[in-house]
Amino acid sequence: FAVEPLDLLALGIQLERHGLDARALSVYRQAASLAPEWPEPYVAGLKVAQKLHDLEGIQWSTVGILSQVFPEKHQDVWLNALRTAKAALDELKAKNLEEQASRYQAALDEAVARDCVIEVSWLGEADVDVIVEEPAGTLCSLRNPRTTSGGVLVGDVSSRSARQGDEGYREYYVCPRGFSGTYRGLIRRVWGEVAGGKVKVTIHTHLLTDKARSMSKMVELKNDEAVIQFELADGRLQAPLNERMLAAAVTNHLELRNRILAQQLPAEQPPQVDPAAMASYYDSRSDGVGLGGGGAILPFLPIHGGAVGYAPQITLIPEGTYMDIAAVISADRRYVRINPVPYFSAITEVNTFNYVTGEGDQGLGGTGGQGFGGLFGGGMGGGLGGGFGGGFF
Prior knowledge:
The chain has helices at residues 5-17, 21-34, 40-52, 55-66, 75-94, 98-112, 241-262, 275-284, 371-374, 379-385, and strands at 114-122, 126-133, 139-140, 152-154, 169-175, 181-192, 198-207, 213-220, 225-232, 320-329, 336-345, 350-353.
């Protein structure tokens, strides 16, 4: 029996192929309940619900899709769900199902809201990457564009792959439902020249809600890097933070273990391992009870070589100015050669976006409680244009 979300998703696909659409929709809903952060069950469920003309299934799937964030190349999936939701809402109102329409409207308002969005824009022929550390310890980057904490890196834009708009090139980090806490971002220039050596960073919190706030700041890239951080309050992800932090730590531990195992050679004794040296080492650790035979290795103690060991190394990085001086005295003790070496060390500047004191705020103000209805305020194009400069993302 299928118990994992991936197994249920595969089962639903097979049921759909055999014409059991109603059963497939039920299985997709089970998969979504086990893995609500997966967009696949909602996307597959919407297609089946439309085939069955199941209005309840359409409501469930559209709310699920609109609560997700999709990469730029899959934005048509999100927009299709947006249009389908508008049609379903109009159908409910046409049938005078006001109470059901009101509940659906509230669910859509909550689905399209975004707890936090980081927008990085720049001018010039260059590529800039964004890496975000979330409160649970998970990292959202190009190597891991979708995290278990809900964050998604939308697109990787550079001057070679995209056309420069009026405000330059942009990259986004979007977290629909995030943990409350501190979010830290690393902005790094990969190649090219950024105009003025600065990027524009805009932080949106509780976007498309009545608590929406936006702050913008020009951040200088010192040594091609800059660090930003901000606090998110009232995050909507209510899963225990300790469990997510533990899961992230376990994932990192397993990845490290797999890397170590991958570097080990086969079980046959490699030529670079000296059996005599291994026997001598064993004798030194065995309280005088040697292996005998002049250092022969026991047959039930196989020797594996080529493995790489890892141990944490704590390094103190001083901040400020200090100097080392080395002195050398000549052989006749008549001269002393002094070699002073000054050091200048500084911690990278951290740009903090503070919504309480307003430091660093350049006065964008809130976006107001737009919600789902605001997306259609001036038609499809006008509603989405109220997002981020001509498009929702």
